[in-house]
Amino acid sequence: MAVVPLPSEPPGHDIGVEALECALAELDADLAELSFLCTAGEARLTGLEAALPEACPYPPTRELLGRAVASARRRYRALGGRLRVLQGEARYAPRSRSLVERVAAERASLSDRLRVEQGLMAGLLAAPDWQSPSFLHSLAPAAGRQTGRIRAHWDDYKRDRHVDAEDYERRYVAEMIDGPAGPRALLTGCGMAAFTTILGWLLGEGKLPGPVLAGRGLYHESRLLLERMLPGRVGFVDESDTPAVLRAIGECRPSAVFLDSLSNTRWMPLPDLRAVIDALRGSDTYLVLDNTCLSVGCQPFALVCESVRLVVFESLLKYAQLGLDRAGAGVIVAQAGDAESVEDYREHLGTNIPDMSVHALPPPDRGVLERRLARLQRNALHVARGLDERALPGVSVVYPGRGGCLSLLSDEHEQRLERQHRVVCEAVAEAARRGVRLLAGSSFGFDTTRIYLTAARAEYGTPFVRIAAGTEHRLELDALTDVLATAIETSLSR
């Protein structure tokens, strides 16, 4: 059974021709996403090329980097040209399944090349720069592209802060955050670095004098840190039971409430954020929200006013990287006054993002990310519905109605790790036999669907099999769903 009702296809629905057109339209959109990355990459390389005379004071270094940048720009232009050709075929060539398969195969190849180019570009952008840039010089600067922009005792040591992150942070708020003006973004080395920075700030500033409330579905590593750093002071509540959450807030008057906007646990509960925020208005309680599993699809700052103390964080290794999986990165968003104080703790805790990681991130673009999230959510729903309709014996399919992941739960009283691991291995083996793309691996938000035994080594949380939907086009989904269903049936019959 599923957590939410899964809608079925309309009776008598013939998906043949319609699915073919849908697949080509989706491939066209996928190629547009790659074109966005190509255009952005070429523009950043053009900017680097223009900065080389000042960034590289020594001619041999400037010539070496100039040749590398020119070569990278040519490759980006060639990739962009091929993407435009493929888009033309997806839009105008005679319709056939073989066309879909050919365009999809080349699209996957170009995506892989572009992912590598993104890493090479990040290296080129960082190459002339310094981790400890000079702010004055007698003969030649040692500040790379930031020559003339470095402020003494502020951004002259990149572990503390740097202008590459600041530029991205401003663009992130402008593109990704709804609600009244005022929030600031702070980049960190990963999502957990964002959480530890927030927790260090709350503790260091004495903002947790009383009890703390957290959702039972809180990410297992966050829960572990809370219980170790605040022994005996953390109460847990079922975030899917809104009356219970509101009652707990009223009774214990917590110093902080920690929630995931969509839990990364086996039941994936969705808290009623509007109700929680309303309950916290006018209080001194901080609401700390992990928004990784919904990303731009959840806009908590649009629900709050100045009387609610909200701090949001997200792992940018997931959805925001558009499947590139190139660099560890996280982001904290808070009102300006809080963000200024949090920034000090980011500096002292050493959780700032490296400059090369910033360069490897795609530029923030709301439309591009929303389109990708919509595809991932559509695919997760399709797979969940297909598995649910197979009525797999002894298995529950959990999909909360949002996000790009679903869970497979055994009806056994005890979850057997070896059986769940067997499901993962059998799924990949079955996919290989049928020539279907499928990966076993952690994380989510990729082009190719992944299957993974989540929380297998966690101190908190019950291990479960997670399926993280990819961006497969419509014609690939039924074969993928059948592979997964067959693997589950085969594994459970042993």
Please tag this protein with its features.
494 residues; 12 strands; single chain; Aspartate Aminotransferase, domain 1; alpha/beta; Aspartate Aminotransferase, domain 2
Give the SSE layout:
Elements: H1 16-55, H2 59-92, H3 97-126, H4 163-176, E1 183-188, H5 191-204, E2 212-215, H6 220-229, E3 234-237, H7 242-252, E4 256-260, H8 273-280, E5 286-290, E6 309-315, E7 330-335, H9 336-349, H10 355-360, H11 366-389, E8 395-398, E9 405-410, H12 417-434, E10 439-440, E11 450-454, E12 464-468, H13 474-493
Parallel strand pairs: 2-3, 2-4, 4-5, 5-6, 10-11
Antiparallel strand pairs: 1-7, 6-7, 8-9, 9-12, 11-12
Helix pairs in contact: 1-2, 1-3, 2-3, 5-6, 5-9, 7-8, 11-13, 12-13
Structure notes:
The structure is a single chain. The protein is of the alpha/beta class and about 500 residues long. The protein has 3 domains: about 15-130; about 155-360, Aspartate Aminotransferase, domain 2; about 370-494, Aspartate Aminotransferase, domain 1 (Alpha-Beta Complex), CATH 3.90.1150.10. About 50% of the residues lie in helices and about 10% in strands. The protein has helices at about 15-55, 60-90, 95-125, 165-175, 190-205, 220-230, 240-250, 275-280, 335-350, 355-360, 365-390, 415-435, 475-494, and strands spanning about 185-190, 210-215, 235, 255-260, 285-290, 310-315, 330-335, 395-400, 405-410, 440, 450-455, 465-470. Strands 1-7-6-5-4-2-3 form a 7-stranded mixed sheet, with helices on both faces. Strand 8 and strand 9 (about 405-410) form a beta hairpin. Helix 1 runs antiparallel to helix 2 (about 60-90) and helix 7 (about 240-250) packs parallel to helix 8. The longest helix is centred in the N-terminal third of the chain and has 40 residues, at about 15-55. The protein is flat and about 75 Å long. The two termini are about 20 Å apart.
